[in-house]
Amino acid sequence: MTFTATTVSTPSTIQSEGYISTAALFSLFSPSIKEEKTYLRLPSVWRDLYKEFLDIKKEQLNAADRATVRELRSIIQEQIEHEESQGVVLTNRFRKRNQGSGAVSEAEDSSRGDIRSTAGSNILKELWKQKTSTLAYQHMLVSRSSLPIFGFRDAALATIDRHQVTIICGETGCGKSTQLPAFLLENELSNGRPCKIYCTEPRRISAISLAQRVSEELGEFKNDLGTSRSLVGYAIRLESNTSAQTRLIYATVGIVLRMLESSQRLSDITHLIIDEIHERR
């Protein structure tokens, strides 16, 4: 590989050689994750230049990602318009969790049974009122509100209510895995709507640790997870820590795929969250 500087000038040959050497190092090592910290060994002036190159590369990648998102949005919008023109009906589960936004058929109304009754709605509201009134919940809410995704809570919930499929992107640590499922759970129960939320994780340890974290953030005690005293549980291979009271379940992908083999097993699921979507093949 040959590197030349044709658009940048320097006051001396030594600086010119340093500049082109830094550019060469960036070209060779920046694509490698193992060598991503190479620039830290450089003198400060060339370390700063290397970081400038990194920023430019990141902006180019972000621009490419934004272009991809725009293209996907265009494809999805075209598909929605096509389905609307063809009279495609929304799936039953999506209609159920949006039952307040439009009329439903008498057959669907009767199939819901008691869960749509006023008494059932009041029970769910009272259940959530008890959860939110605890000091543990209020204490955890303070730390939860500091996460970046907290400011997008209303926008995320409104988008999910309007669309059958929603893609949410965010930096690592912003709260997608813990807060988004909790937002859905809180929103449904506070409005008296029955819900069963599954959040898939690629690894068993992730499913367990996230379930424990969300359970604690809801003000539940450490040993409550998966019991009748908790709204949260997890399901992994050879182990299911849930109860009839569980409304939010963190599960491995394999568990949910096996559930898909039987339509009866998915009849009560209102929301399916596929976490770490970038790891899917």
Plain-language structure description:
With about 280 residues, this protein is an alpha/beta fold. It has two domains: about 10-90; about 95-280, P-loop containing nucleotide triphosphate hydrolases (Rossmann fold), CATH 3.40.50. Helix content is about 50%, strand content about 10%. The protein has ten helices and five strands, in the order H-H-H-H-H-H-H-H-E-H-E-E-E-H-E. Strands 3-2-4-1-5 form a five-stranded mixed beta sheet. The mean pLDDT is about 80.
pLDDT under 50 segments (min length 5)?
Answer: none
Q: Would you tell me the structural class of the helices and strands?
A: alpha/beta
Using only CA atoms, what is the Rg?
A: 25 Å
| Average predicted confidence as pLDDT | 82
End-to-end separation: 33 Å
Give the count of structural domains: 2
Shape: elongated
CATH topology type of the largest domain: Rossmann fold
CATH class bucket of the largest domain: Alpha Beta
Q: What is the CATH architecture term of the largest domain?
A: 3-Layer(aba) Sandwich
Specify the biggest β-sheet: 5 strands, mixed
Lay out the secondary structure.
Blueprint: H1 13-29, H2 44-86, H3 92-97, H4 106-112, H5 118-132, H6 135-144, H7 153-162, H8 176-190, E1 197-201, H9 204-217, E2 232-236, E3 239-241, E4 248-252, H10 253-260, E5 271-274
Parallel strand pairs: 1-4, 1-5, 2-4
Antiparallel strand pairs: 2-3
